[in-house]
Design a protein that fits this description.
Shape: globular
Helix content: over 70%
Radius of gyration: 18 Å
Order of helices and strands: HHHHHHHHH
Number of helices: 9
Number of strands: 0
Number of domains: 1
Largest sheet: none
């Protein structure tokens, strides 16, 4: 019989994985719309083309680099942070390599697909952030730089995305009108999604790996 605490933990992890799968589906919808990618996906695609790997593998590799940077900057790492790094890239490759999400060749249909994809990214974000196991590596990097640079979050996020967009374009990533659609729409659509689910992201109290390790150590000591 599963203990209630274990059932709760299992529920949170399953919900988190479902969130990653939906988030990745949203990303692939924006990629297969063929009208231009979001800044990070431009970089992942350019990196994938340059070194001969999949976009999912590029996402995982860059995620690992950013997790290390987050750790060096003193940001706490959660299981959700590591899961984001690994599972979103795996799901991206699963969807793309199996042709699950259609590719578009008509611009206005591509725009519709991008907007649906951004909505799915919002739903996926809600599911995995709401379990309180830590945010994604890129969000952690943004927070770390805001703390150190003493600049507004919008400026820092814009600077990061501007740098990765230019770098990805130079590496051969697809920049188009869809890129502008994504940049202008992703914030409002995610905000709409959170409001739809009545989700206050600021109210989430995250658990981090170091806290779990200390708690496990205390439990082991008490059982001696």
């Amino acid at each position: 019989m599963i203990h209630p605490t274990e059932r709760h933990i299992l529920y949170r992890f399953v919900r988190m994985i479902i969130g990653f799968s939906i988030f990745a589906a949203g990303i692939v919808m924006t990629i297969n719309a063929n009208i231009g990618l979001g800044p990070w996906d431009v970089f992942h695609q350019g990196l994938a083309k340059t070194i001969g790997i999949t976009i999912g593998q590029a996402s995982i590799g860059m995620g690992l680099v950013i997790v290390v940077m987050d750790f060096v900057f003193g940001e706490k790492i959660g299981w959700g942070t590591l899961g984001n790094m690994m599972f979103i890239g795996l799901f991206i490759d699963f969807y793309m390599l199996n042709g699950i999400i259609p590719e578009q060749n008509i611009f206005w249909i591509g725009v519709v697909q991008v907007l649906i994809g951004l909505f799915l990214i919002g739903v996926g974000s809600f599911l995995y952030i709401s379990v309180g196991l830590g945010c994604g590596p890129r969000d952690g990097l943004m927070v770390a730089l805001v703390k150190r640079m003493k600049r507004p979050v919008g400026m820092v996020r814009g600077s990061i995305e501007g740098i990765v967009l230019v770098a990805g374009w130079l590496l051969g990533g697809h920049v188009g009108l869809g890129t502008l659609v994504i940049v202008l729409s992703i914030g409002p659509l995610i905000q709409f999604t959170f409001r739809l689910f009545r989700f206050d992201v600021a109210a989430v109290e995250h658990e981090f790996i170091d806290e779990d390790i200390r708690a496990l150590g205390r439990r082991m000591k008490n059982h001696r």
